[in-house]
Amino acid sequence: MKSGATRPELLSTIRDILADVVDNESLQLTEASTAEQVPDWDSINQVKLLIGLENELNFRFSSQEVEGLKNVGALIDLVQRKLAVRT
Amino acid sequence: MHSETNYSSKVEFPGMEAPDREGPPRKCFKRLADALEDARQGADKIEIEWRVLDFLYGRTRWKSVTRADWEQQVRIATAFDENLRRFGSARLLKEIADQVGVSLKAAVAPERTLAPALVITYHGSFSVTLRRLFRNLFPDGVAIAANGVYAAGDGAFALFAAREALLAEKPAFMAPDGRYGREAGTVSVLGAQLPLTDGAPFLAHATGCKVEWLALSWTGRGFAIEALAGPQRVAGEAFRDYRERFYHFYAARLEEAFTGNPANLPLTANWRLMFDAMLAGKVYRFRRPTRQIA
User: Residue B89 is part of which domain span?
Assistant: First the structure.
């Protein structure tokens, strides 16, 4: 995925990975979504989501970067920053 | 953040974790001997359910110890553990580190060429003191704990930081019988059902790291480290299979601890309640969820 990936594209990528992690292909996700709203989105599955993004987008998060993410939109913000730095 | 000044203004012990304290400190122990003597004096005041004591004594491997002596040793161990946890000074921690530091380092990171381990222990056998030693001896490692390096408020962050450390060949520390994280099944410990998360086996499986069981044991004259290599992921092993091996190993260590030397059997509230619930035909479910993307 390129550095100029749009927010809808990133939301779709996050949705696909998370749907696989929580085993729910019909998962609906918005930028406002939080873990509390998604069944089975626990701490381990969040780490699996982050690892999935690392593998998909070919970068590594640091633990400081992933601390205190507020919602999916905040994760998209972070991914966009990572993609921008990579180029 | 606690200041070390109240505990020791003279002994420098970088990285010292502040003692767990509820309210203002009533005591401050600077020597192990003092903490132990105080525990001996206060052992009778420790509240432990009699049927839990009966149950555990019935399963002890220390058959040569009378019921009264066994119970007294458990009471002293429980009071001693609390003294170290709540009222231990930096000077006291250094005294313990002088006794076990070399063997602790050898167990966790034996050679520079070998990847350090995910250290697992349990909430007994002076586990908070062990965690403080770990933090001091491995300042670049990650200790996951409710009141430790990472608050339980962000479980995903704690797990991610531990994974990051292990991948960077730094050690990580956790006690899988803790209070936080979503229950993902139970394992039997002397018949009591211990609710577990998948956090520890997930970390070990995801990183392929070594696993090392550690416990801090009281020898009667000082502390020693008990270490045993745990299961490591083998190539191609599915998580479900690894998880089963991991918790089989963990439950065996717990059963060994609870049937072992009563001087190393401080009974924490969770374990007392877990055994008590089992004796009442129930399961004590104590786990609390952590926060992820809020």
Answer: 29-279
Q: What is the domain count for chain B?
A: 1
Give the total number of structural domains in chain A: 1
Token duo for residue B107: 């167990």
> Is the distance from CB of B56 to CB of B260 less than 8 angstroms?
no
Q: Measuring CA to CA, how many Å separate B274 from each of A60, B14, B287? A: 40, 36, 12
**DSSP string computed for B127-193:** HHHHHHHHHHH-TTSEEB-TTSSB-TTBHHHHHHHHHHHHHTT--EEE-TTSSBS----EEEETTEE
As a whole number of angstroms, the distance between CA B264 and CA B61 comes to: 13
Residue with tokens 């749009």, as numbered in its chain: A6
Residue ranges making up the domain that contains A12 = 7-86
Query: What does the pLDDT look like over B204-250, one tens digit per residue?
Result: 999 999 999 999 999 999 999 999 999 999 999 999 999 999 999 99
A2 in a structural domain: no
Q: Which residues of A touch B199 (CB under 8 A)?
A: 43-44
Q: What is the CATH number of the domain that holds A21?
A: 1.10.1200.10
Q: What residues in A contact B202, CB-CB < 8 Å?
A: 44, 47
Question: Model-level pTM?
Answer: 0.87
Q: Are B154 and A67 within 8 A, CB to CB?
A: yes
